[in-house]
Amino acid sequence: SDKIENGEVYQRRKGPHVSPTDDQEVSHSPRDMGERTGSSWRRIMLLILAITIHNIPEGLAVGVGFGAAGKTASATFESARNLAIGIGIQNFPEGLAVSLPLRGAGVSTWRAFWYGQLSGMVEPVAGVLGAFAVVLAEPLLPYALAFAAGAMIYVVMDDIIPEAQVSGNGKLASWTSILGFVVMMSLDVGLG
């Protein structure tokens, strides 16, 4: 099950077979391997936690949108539905952002898939809470929407954009951000 990729031999889940040069020291002590693995798992768990927490304001936004439907001329069921569709579309890459690192760390495909799904399960709960909050606290609606939007923008600015720049995918991240903006604006105009 070895394959040649970019001139180096790779084994599934074991990384590249690179032989050390004379001036390099390679440590294979269990402690060093454990530190690398532990650090990797901590980063993966931090990413999963960040995405799961950032799903809470998204669920709140959808819940607030549906809870406010009919309260004003601009708060309609259609606008709440459009918001739910937009957030639902952008949840696909978020699920992948949870599943792919897990899969790369050796977790089975189905387990990685289900952890990706579970990271989004906070959204319906937060949505119910958001709708309930609007019914009880209608004067707080502008603040709840501003909080949800601000939280989403903060996560993108603080976590996702710097990570894309560090990993060398700055141009790709910029172009896909532009594409995402165009898609969302098209949905906004096309769906009302």
Give the C-alpha Rg.
21 Å
Number of strands: 3
Total helices: the number is 6
Low-confidence stretches: 1-12, 22-34
Strand order of the largest sheet: 1-2-3
The helix-strand sequence is EEEHHHHHH
> What best-fitting shape do the alpha-carbon axes yield?
globular
> Percent helix among the residues?
over 70%
Q: Work out the oligomeric state of the chains in this entry.
A: single chain
Structural class per helix/strand content? mainly alpha
Strand content range: under 5%
The biggest sheet, with number of strands, parallel, antiparallel or mixed sense and barrel status, is: 3 strands, antiparallel
Mean pLDDT: 78
Instruction: Give the distance, in angstroms, between the N- and C-terminal Cα atoms.
Output: 52 Å
Summarize the structure.
The protein has helices at residues 30-67, 77-104, 109-119, 122-136, 141-166, 170-190, and strands at residues 3-5, 8-11, 15-16. It is mainly alpha-helical and 192 residues long.
